[in-house]
Amino acid sequence: MQENKHIKALSREREQEISELAEFIAEEYSTVDYISPEKIAEANQITFSYGDYGDAFDGMLEHRFSKFHIYCNLNRINRIDSPRARFTFCHELGHYYIDEHRQSLESGKVPAHPSRCEYESGNIVEREADYFASNLLMPTKRFLQFAKKVKIGFEGIHKIANNFGVSIISASIRYCSSNIASCAIIKWNVDGYAWKWLSAKTYKAQYRKTIEFQNNLPIDSPTARALRGENSSEKGFFEAGTTASSWFPYIKQGSHKDIIFIEQAISLGRFGVLTFLYPESGNYDFEGNIL
Predict the structure, then answer these.
(1) IrrE N-terminal-like domain location, by residue (predicted)?
(2) pLDDT for the residue numbered 6
(3) What pLDDT does 3 receive?
């Protein structure tokens, strides 16, 4: 469950509709986990190009002369085969496959518009395209079959990312929102808090409001160290034990809810830092106790 007061979440009905659409397309065009968005575009006579467009956008879907064309910005996605490039391409495919998006472009009611992908935009249309991209690259059945076998935390997230060809951000959000385990992820930009995502189990256990200011982070915490740009371990991320009260302001120190969490943090380069939190032992019951 996403928690961001500045971003409107999709309804469960809309998520289900888009998820089923993406799953259908994945099954139709690929029998392996590593989806090829370019092949899907070619099968639909959608042309595409990669170029340097400064910082203007990640991707853009244009409709001209009854044809569709996808632009991908190498300045923002780095390489044509990078996880961000793949997500961006699938995001633009989302604008094509989601009927309302495609029809608006075909009718001329809306012009081609630049997209910021991987959950950087609060625009509901962009959120829908992001959700489509995530589910196309990680179709539900295939994702659950693989993700349930990996270790909780960034060690497992890395395996998911490599298997499906997605970024750490995309894999983390998909893992958290699939409610496979009790966890929370918090995204930090270079200038501060960006958003967080809570698993349904974490939300129901009432671990909701988290730290949103960097100066409230313990100075030696994994997240603070990642934000300072320190070198991480061979694992590629920082890790340490912490308490619920250190991260969730409404949890009273020493109370039965002040359980031990494992905090991991990984640098995303110019895109900031991602924090992954999960209880050290087991899941919660509905009162926030460990089972």
Answers:
(1) 81-174
(2) 45
(3) 54
Total of domains in the chain: 2
Per the structure, the complete domain to which residue 114 belongs is given by 2-137
pLDDT tens for 130-181 read 999 999 999 999 999 999 999 999 999 999 999 999 999 999 999 999 989 9
Query: Scanning the structure block, which residue is given the tokens 């992001």?
Result: 130
Tokens at residue 230, please? 């320190």
In a shared domain, residues 93 and 190: no
Residues 15 and 35: their CA atoms lie apart, in Å, by 20
Residue 164 lies in a domain: no
Domain membership flag for residue 75:
yes
247-287 pLDDT, tens digit per residue, is: 999 999 999 999 999 999 999 988 899 999 999 976 775 44
Rounded Cα distance between 127 and 22, Å, is 14
> Does some domain include residue 172?
no
Give the confidence band of 10 by pLDDT, cuts at 50, 70, 90. confident
CATH of the domain at 209: 3.30.450
Distance CA 246, CA 258 (A): 9
By the 8 A CB rule, do 48 and 85 touch?
A: no
Task: Specify which residues 236 forms β-bridges with.
Answer: none
Together in a domain, 245 and 189: yes
Q: Is residue 221 part of a domain?
A: yes
Measured CA to CA, the distance from residue 235 to residue 24 in angstroms comes to 36
Shared-domain flag, residues 21 and 83: yes
